[in-house]
């Protein structure tokens, strides 16, 4: 028997500088990528994936609630313009170099 649960969310901070040239791909998000927000595990929009270092492949497009799942598909920006100041954590210099090489521009 399935149970429904209703949750109210708030709007996050805009991380997009422009939608022109935006390219999204689906990646696998895990609870290890999430941060604890109250009683939820959330992968925040603007999180560098898979890790914030030279192996960076993209930036999470929107907040994802992964509280009830070990893994979940997430939308990741792999090309486009983002507002660096609005990202939830500072982007590592090696990650920034890798992201710029893949087509992400920081404003």
**Content-based structural category:** mainly beta
**Secondary-structure element string:** EEEEEEEHE
The proportion of residues forming helix, as a percent range, comes to under 10%
Multimeric status of the protein? single chain
Instruction: Report the radius of gyration as a whole number of Å.
Output: 14 Å
Instruction: List low-confidence stretches.
Output: none
Strand content bin: 35-45%
- Biggest beta-sheet profile: 5 strands, mixed
Distance between the termini: 48 Å
Task: Explain the overall architecture.
The protein has 107 residues and is mainly β. Helices cover 9% and strands 41% of the residues. It contains one helix and eight strands. The strands form two sheets. Strands 1, 4, 5, 7 and 8 form a five-stranded mixed β-sheet that branches. The chain has a three-stranded antiparallel β-sheet with strand order 2-3-6, with no helix packed on it. It is globular and about 45 Å long. The model has no long low-confidence stretch (mean pLDDT 92).
